[in-house]
Amino acid sequence: MQAERPDAPPAPIRPAATVLICRDSAAGPEVLMIQRHALSDVHGGSYVFPGGKVDPADARLDIDAHLDQPPERLHALLCEEDIDTATATAIHVAAVREIFEECGLLFARGLDAETLRQASALAADGVSFNGMLGRLGLRLDTRTLRPWSRWVTPLLSLSSPGKRFDTRFFIAKAPAGQEAQHDAHEAVHSAWLRPRAALESYWRGEIVLAAPQIMSLAHLGRFNSVDAMLADADSRPPCLVRPHTFEIEGMRATAYPGDERHPERIRVMPGPLRLVMRGKRLEPPDGFEGLWR
């Protein structure tokens, strides 16, 4: 991983949305992760949660016909005074659209198997997301999404240099009767993983994770059911995470709110307050178990 040059002009920050899609299993809650294509310009080869940039078309959705909640409600849920209602609405639309485009899951009201098949066929024929909703008369189910956290890429990122995002993470229960299928274009593999098992695979070098995924998995791994995760999301505003990067003992590191090297001194989420780059792996200073302290 390379860092941006300190003297380079700051990259523009792009709004984005991603979703932690979770389901219960006999062994505990699982979260859907997809592996980005190795040539992807953002987190190439890494395991990530489905999501992507907010597109201009997301703001052009006919909200009266296709939205299940008033835009003012969506704005209030994000707890962000620095954005307007239209932006908050577009972020929610982008979250649902990206899930559908990347893994074939469609969060829509009253959806049945035949309508889902038609939606997938229209998408395969190149019909836009908004166009598909219009043809099928579907209304998005944004109530399924709960705001979970907000991650703002630091100026000197430890991964994807030159790319900066203001990403809203949502959490949602996997829709009943639907099967996730990665698009085989941007995503080359998908898997339902228990959060701790995913981090163990990362620790063994079997998968690649970026810092937001590491920290989010450490957060999810503290719950014993999806309902407990959703209840937690409903009980608090989304965590605002603005990582701070620095060097220590010749290694690059990133600190989170509450760490002594971070300008924000109040902790906003569970898990380690710092990750250090040792070789090619980001890890807590005190090793794997530090993810759970």
Task: Give Rg in angstroms.
Answer: 19 Å
* Amino- and carboxy-terminal Cα gap: 26 Å
Poorly predicted residue ranges: none
Helix content bin: 25-40%
Q: What multimeric state do the chains show? A: single chain
Number of helices: 8
Helix/strand order: EEEEHHHHHEEEHHHEEEEE
Q: Number of DSSP strands?
A: 12
Shape: globular
Q: What's the story with the biggest beta sheet?
A: 8 strands, mixed
Beta-strand percentage range: 15-25%
Give an overview in words.
The chain contains eight helices and twelve strands. The protein is of the alpha+beta class and 293 residues long. The two termini are 26 Å apart. The relative contact order is 0.17. The model has no long low-confidence stretch (mean pLDDT 92).
Please describe the topology of this protein.
Layout: E1 13-23, E2 30-36, E3 47-48, E4 51-53, H1 63-66, H2 71-78, H3 85-103, H4 113-124, H5 129-136, E5 146-152, E6 164-173, E7 187-193, H6 195-203, H7 211-220, H8 226-234, E8 239-241, E9 244-248, E10 251-255, E11 274-278, E12 281-283
Parallel strand pairs: 1-6, 5-8
Antiparallel strand pairs: 1-2, 1-4, 2-3, 2-7, 5-6, 9-10, 10-11, 11-12
Helix pairs in contact: 2-3, 4-5, 6-7
Provide a brief overview of the structure.
With 293 residues, the chain is an alpha+beta fold.
